[in-house]
# Entry
Amino acid sequence: MAHFPKPSEGSWTEHYPELGTGPVNYEDSISPEFYELERKAIFNRTWLNVGRVEQVPRTGRYFTKELSCAGTSVIIVRDKDGGVRGFHNICRHRGNKLVWNDFPNEETSGTCRQFTCKYHGWRYDLDGSLTFVQQESEFFDLDKDDYGLVPVQTEVWEGFIFVNLDPSNTTSVKEYLGEFGAGLEGYPFGEMTQVYKYRANVGSNWKLFIDAFAEFYHAPVLHAKQATDDESRKLQGYGFEALSYAIDGPHGMVSSWGGMSPPKDPSMVKPIENVLRSGLFGPWDRPDIAGLDPLPAAVNPARSPNWGIDSFVFFPNFMLLVWAPGWYLTYHYWPTSHNSHIFEGTLYFVPPKDATDRLRQELAAVTFKEYALQDGNTLEATQSMIESRAVTEFPLNDQEILLRHLHRTARRYVADHEKSGTPVDVPVVR
Amino acid sequence: MNPVLPPDFADLEPFADWCLHTEAERYAKRLASSMDELQSFYDAAFPRLEQILIYLDALPLDDLPDDARHLLDLSYSLVNVSFPVEVWRQPRVPDSGAASMDAVVEPAV
# Structure
């Protein structure tokens, strides 16, 4: 029984006929060879979100980002003119990693006037120019102008810092993010600076965790024990249907209802949720800031009064979730091999005005972790069984349209790259 | 042992070992506790939560005296153990197996 209207074609999936409706082959998630192609065709070609401007609030503030998926590490820094720049994290002298603390493979952050290499003391200004060479006169015709840090294309969209490792890229991040990006502009991301960030090493292909968070079909079953017994039975009987789905180029989005903020019946939720007025969907009361009413055009596209959350899947590995009660969440999936990745989940709230606000946010953050642990654990089991190749094709339903689209997009990027042998521009997936 | 909580909350002193400032410490203590231990902490602290909120909300969040700060930390622990006590009936998240997730950024207060 349909609870929400679908497109005239009869399903969300058939509204995008190029997706097909047949079973989907998951070889793209278990093949080491395919992963190597993804590194070239996707992670070295597309815009990757590596952080937020709040991480580099002042001149000289920097952080590093390990990008095993692209075979490099980058430094992001606020320069003297207030701009945000990115560089490959490598000293021009003999290739030492330039910025790190104690453990070369761990990310770090801090403040500096210039970057100094730990090895031979070469120094670089915040704009990347080489300013000092130890015993410069020992070198042969060394022109410091020729040995600045290697820049990485770096752009900021709505406070999100993106890098693109393809020097020949000519697409701006704004253009790349397409109609979903345009439709999110103006959301008060910059007001939501109270941050909780979780990280996990997950033993699955990166796309499998996106799969898990790009559909809610699993929620009434996998997370059944999170709700009270009566509520859980009701949710399973009801199943899950989204308010709407949309696809734009390589990106997708799902808009969902959210009945828990606040619940119609207090007995539906846990005792501490009733006292704190908060839970999985965040604090029940919206913070008093501008920009949440009306919301930007891309949010709650069905204009449903029951709207609860929108999940935007920005290809390849960045998800942005906007919640009705006025906060947002990001997911990043950083591949480390064909069957492993680092997952990051980051919650952003308006800074609390008192202890009650703070505890409401704490409850939302703790609840997020409880759910994510269940989601993450399922994946390693899925990965190992898909690798058995006992079954190679899987039927995806209409509520799993974004999964169908994600795997298709990854295969398309790889195929286009293989065909052209040259960098793919923004591919037209539709 | 010297009291660490505000005098109004002297009844929670037996649970002062739950005054833990980081999520990692709170989660580790939760996993290392028996359900009886979690239940007795919850049974003592949960009925006091509304009073705790009233007490703490009267103070500036970014400049809490030490005893109030401890009370807030204890409240974070209450939030954390509410899942095993109210829902899971076990310290660990069911079906989470060997999965782990670390808090790498959390608020200073």
Q: What stands out?
A: Residues 217 and 240 of chain A are 5 Å apart (CA to CA). Residues 423-430 of chain A have pLDDT under 50 and may be disordered. The interface with chain B takes residues 194-200, 202, 222, 225-226, 270-272, 275-276, 343, 345-346, 352-359, 361-363, 365-367, 369-370, 372-374, 376-378, 380 of chain A (CB under 8 Å). Chain A has eight helices and 19 strands.
